[in-house]
Amino acid sequence: MAQESPKNSAAEIAVTSNGEVDDSHEHGFNRDLKHSLPAGLGLSETQITSHGFDSTKEGITEAEAYEGPSAPPLPSVMSPSRVAASQLAQQGSDLIVPAGGQRTQTKSGPVILADEIKNPAMEKLELVRKWSLNTYKCTRQIISEKLGRGSRTVDLELEAQIDILRDNKKKYENILRLAQTLSTQLFQMVHTQRQLGDAFADLSLKSLELHEEFGYNADTQKLLAKNGETLLGAINFFIASVNTLVNKTIEDTLMTVKQYESARIEYDAYRTDLEELNLGPRDANTMPKIEHSQHMFQAHKEKYDKMRNDVSIKLKFLEENKVKVLHNQLVLFHNAIAAYFAGNQKQLEQTLKQFHIKLKTPGVDAPSWLEEQ
């Protein structure tokens, strides 16, 4: 071949007859390679590695600055295969020239852009900083309200309902405590009546002259003990229902109220902070702070509105549930007490059946699940 096309000039290597690389023709090859590769590689500053065919010798040639048109190709030129040309092109693309001018050679391969590694310690530190700032603002707001210097957001209707709920909870807790005391005392009385009935029955068998008198008293005490156990079952059912209402249902609503009050304090704290910033100057330094404060204020305002709506809904459902539960329990308590002290055993038993109350016989364990099946 006398001449090759310009796009194949990068794949031409001058060799001697014995297969060695001809150093005299490398400058021409480098100039042709500079035209074939992209201009961004800067071949005047590049280090190129060429491999001889049928030889293990590697030559490193430093390309000089391009000064003029390329010389005509010499007659002793051998064109390598397309595979060798592609390998040379890949080796040329692996060359990287740093800004300082030092020449390095890197391996070819896919480039992976890793995400920025997050430091867990810095994240925790940022969380602590935000928590500290929020706590400081809320504490300052609480102290300002107690000293009468700060303003607070008040929903008069909702605040009145919350006060009534807290007052009712204290009264229900007092009723629950007294009912538990009555149950304990009634249990002791029933236990005493049962023992007294057993003692009268024993004496009725041993005293022939007082057999009837001891027998009457034994039957009376056993009947009172039986009615007392029935009344005790009704009172314990009343206590369990009121305890669920006070310590679970009402307590759950009050937990929501506490979250609402915390949201209200945060809302007022950031509202006060925004008002203070708006009263100050507006320049390039304060505007970012004002915008950030406005964003935080809006976020806490949405949280406050949501919690206020949740409290209103829970108070409404609590009132309906409370009326229903207390109505049934008060009717049960009244009917059971009235039937017990009137000596109406049938009415007392009927009251327990009305509210589906099953009495547990003393000394008898609950049946197993096999027996229930």
Description:
The chain is mainly alpha-helical and 373 residues long. Helix content is 65%, strand content 4%. The chain has helices at 26-36, 82-93, 120-147, 156-206, 211-279, 286-341, 345-354, 369-372, and strands at 47-51, 58-62, 95-96, 104-105. Strand 3 (95-96) and strand 4 (104-105) form a beta hairpin. The termini are far apart. Mean pLDDT is 74; it is low at 1-15, 17-21, 37-80, 92-115 and 369-373.
Query: Which bin fits the share of residues in helices?
Result: 55-70%
Low-pLDDT sequence parts: 1-15, 17-21, 37-80, 92-115, 369-373
The averaged pLDDT comes out at 74
Whole-number radius of gyration? 48 Å
Report the span from N to C terminus.
103 Å
Give the DSSP E fraction (strand runs of 2 or more residues).
Answer: under 5%
Name the helix and strand elements from N-terminus to C-terminus, one letter apiece.
HEEHEEHHHHHH
- Give a quick account of the main beta sheet: strands, pairing sense, barrel closure: 2 strands, antiparallel
Structural category is mainly alpha
* Sheet with the most strands: spatial strand order: 1-2
Region (Disordered): 1-33
Organism: Pipistrellus nathusii (Nathusius' pipistrelle)
Keywords: Coiled coil
Domain AH: 153-353
